[in-house]
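Entry type: protein chain
Record version: 2
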Amino acid sequence: MTTLYVTPSTPRTGSGRGLRTVGIARALARQGDVHVRYVEFDGSRPDAALEADPRVSLEPLRASRGLRRAMVYGRARAAGAPPAFARGVSQELVAAGRDSRAFERIVADGPTAAAALILVAGADGVIYNAHNVESGFRTTLSTGQRDYGSPRQLRAFERNLLEGASETWLPTRRDVREAHAIAPFAACRYAPNVVDVSAIDAVSPARSGRILFVADFSYEPNLNAARYLVDDVMPAVWSSLPAAELALVGRDLEPDGISDSRIELLGFVPDLNAEYARSACAVVPLLQGGGSPLKMIEAMAYGLPVVATPLAAAGLEEALAGVHYLTGEGPAGLAAALVSACRGECDQIGLAARALAEKEYSIEALARVIP
């Protein structure tokens, strides 16, 4: 099976969205040759594992500017794409599927690529790799200058993508159900978020009382989760464990008034192995967002006990509370779970989580469920 994979950004693993892009590409490469066409903006390099894979070829596209870009933006808007997605549609992205007949399968990565190929280029037989059901959560965010349109407009745009695609791949079974509520006759397939579990060496929980939160803080739900953790949850943890520490790791992390010496602000860290090895547990305190948090799957793969809000864990339907992760309602409930993990009372949960990650959320597992 030969696949053309079109994505609007450099395929690399610096964010949850990038992790899904790379995971899908690597799973496709288990089935045959994959040609990745991606729009290059900042000169960043693709994921090293993709570059090293002999079945993957990478072709950067340089997006045009000026009048040509304005014209294709207008075409995307006329086709129903909200401004936030239409701005990412370039002539080069529209033309990326021009020789699609040379491939047995074409996959559009995310709504921008899908809009370019399905709505603007009118390509047939395109598989839409969705990262979320966008209309399910975008309207709950304060998106600043990004304009996703009204809830009705965003839902109509998403319906057009779902109905125009030959099939849509979604990261959770909940997303599949939500997609069918939008477009009842669309062909939808569960294609979970995954990480390269085989490349991750499991660690033993440290007896350090250190709590680790890894996230891309340019994503509003992650930033809000960090604020919730610092302002509401950690004070309850410190009432039981005054020496507990919190480490925040990820790009676009701003101090924003945080001065407690028990909170480490590490920013972007290229190698996370040492951070997981130094920690007693990982936390995923999301209160907003969709899909399944890839950083939760990554933490499970490291074998650490993971403490997650009910919303964060909801996308991982194979994972069971109290078996594969710990949870709690509200700041007090989440704090109690973190205290238990820091005291080493639930190390077996980390072992069970690692086994589940290998079975359900690995690249090999994904390769088995996509056609």
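Comment: The chain has two domains: 3-191, 199-362.
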